[in-house]
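Bench notes, afternoon.
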Amino acid sequence: MENMLIKHIRQRSVGRAKVAHAVVVIFMEFFAWGLLTTPMLMVLHETFPQHTFLMNGLIQGVKGFLSFMSAPLIGALSDVWGRKSFLLLTVFFTCAPIPLMRLSPWWFFALMSVSGLFSVTFSVIFAYVADITEEDERSTAYGLVSATFAASLVTSPAIGAYLSLRYGDSLVVLLATIIAVVDILFVLLVVPESLPDKMRLSSWGLPISWEQADPFASLRKVGKDSTVLLICVTVFLSYLPEAGQYSSFFLYLGQVINFSSEAIAGFIAMVGILSIGAQTLLLSLLMKKIGNKSTVLLGLGFQLFQLAWYGFGSEPWMMWAAGAVAALSSITFPAVSALVSRCTDRDQQGAVQGMITGIRGLCNGLGPALYGFIFFLFNVELKEMSPVQPNPVSPQTEEKRVIPGPPFLFGACTVILALLVAVFIPVQQTPAVKTCSTRVMTEPASGATEIGSVHVSDEDNEPLLQDSSL
């Protein structure tokens, strides 16, 4: 019965799989959440009036840790059962908490935390794109997907802030719910399956081992492949501050820098527009001119500058300038994803992209909790929040800090470490040079057997993906 349901879901689609399908799915999912930026700040403060930054960090932390735990399993299953079924699953559960924002804030935040089990849409989307693109065009496609994420945040927070001010939060939540439902229906009725039937049929019925589902096993495998180890450490050190920043920055702008709701929405729009240009035109140009590794290093350099500016900046114009630099730093992750995809066999894109997304999920758990704790240590708290006016801070009640944003300065230090690690990533001269295994292994109960493999020497066979039974 379950197999028939999955088969039925796959067959309900229109045309061939295209990057455009991935772009639409990502845009609608994050557009719906972008609309809730301003209402969520209000609901968060109303629900947790004490230690708002800390509670926000804990909520995002639980969500991110659950994402880390589930990402390898979902990625591996999508390699066997296809991408469409898991796109439907991840989009549905990621958007499920939205209607509860006005119905029950406590249940909203609880379900949002638990939804981290399925908040891995990006890993399935990147595997989807890898299925239908060639290596030489994959970095551009990844940049387009990442730019779409930025584009979804260009107008949605501003629209959400305007509608919330004019008509109330209930209308914003209703609109976000409608867009989420449309996104689910789009995946169900329009998005085609990207994984070829031959790959699915050859893998169908093979067991998914605990080694593939265990995120810590994935991390242990990373250590056996020096190139992928360096890439994953770079991702961890660079995304840890980014995840913490994303979870608390809008609260920080309103509380410490005194941005109004309209200014916050405008800030998000500016960064989003610049990110679109950076992840499409600039990324493509840099990949051709200076190569994959140099692009990653340049993106990390922009991130370091941006975080240091956030940490020491105390005036609104400093935040706007640092935001422009933040947009330039957005080229890092698509460049890293393209680098990872080049060292991965075609039938294991989901597993490896799931591993990278799992590391990002771990950062999504640790980063917000760490930032919230640092804000708590330095007594940076929300006093009052108005949906219309910024929170005025009087010099008599709030003394000037030497470092207004201590968590951002901590993040700059981790990015320095990421830069030092990324320097040692080997440069791949041609797409044919791979650091991952060139064969697929299975682990039946009677012993290990090779399926459809081309004989290679032990020296040429890297250990990262040897244990994958796909």
